[in-house]
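Hi R.,

As promised on Friday, here is the backbone we talked about, encoded as structure tokens. Could you run it through your design pipeline when you get a chance and send me back a sequence?
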């Protein structure tokens, strides 16, 4: 009687591989969208070179006292302009400004103008999301 004959159990791997690829793609997409999109809409003072723009190759840190640093190296606005203008393909260089809460808006405008003077057309402002 073959009706009650025990069949050998087997594990189907193909659906598990599909799920693993889906999870891999999901985590890659989430990781790519988490980094540059933490921005803050704000009313900034007028600038001679103001435009709306899009994401980061250079991270500029603006301290409370107005000092600038790029990759841990402290520099002035003129040095920032010179450093950015030496980069290849300056028009496609993306600069993200991570400023302190207490930094003056005028100092922010100086950094943005230094970037624009160097030929950078894409500037972003970094912000932390509000803790709930």
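Update: got your reply. Pasting your designed sequence below so it's all in one thread:
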């Amino acid at each position: 009687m073959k009706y009650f004959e025990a069949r050998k159990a087997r594990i189907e791997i193909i659906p598990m591989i599909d799920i693993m690829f889906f999870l891999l793609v999901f985590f890659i997409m989430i990781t790519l969208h988490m980094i540059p999109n933490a921005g803050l809409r704000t009313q900034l003072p007028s600038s001679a070179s103001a435009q709306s723009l899009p994401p980061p190759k250079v991270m500029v840190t603006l301290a409370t006292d107005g000092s600038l640093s790029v990759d841990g190296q402290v520099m002035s606005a003129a040095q920032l302009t010179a450093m950015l203008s030496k980069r290849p393909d300056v028009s496609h260089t993306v600069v993200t400004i991570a400023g302190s809460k207490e930094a003056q808006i005028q100092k922010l405008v100086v950094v943005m103008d230094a970037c624009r003077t160097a030929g950078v057309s894409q500037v972003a402002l970094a912000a932390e999301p509000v803790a709930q």
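One thing I noticed while checking it: Helices lie at 14-34, 77-85, 105-118.

Thanks again,
M.
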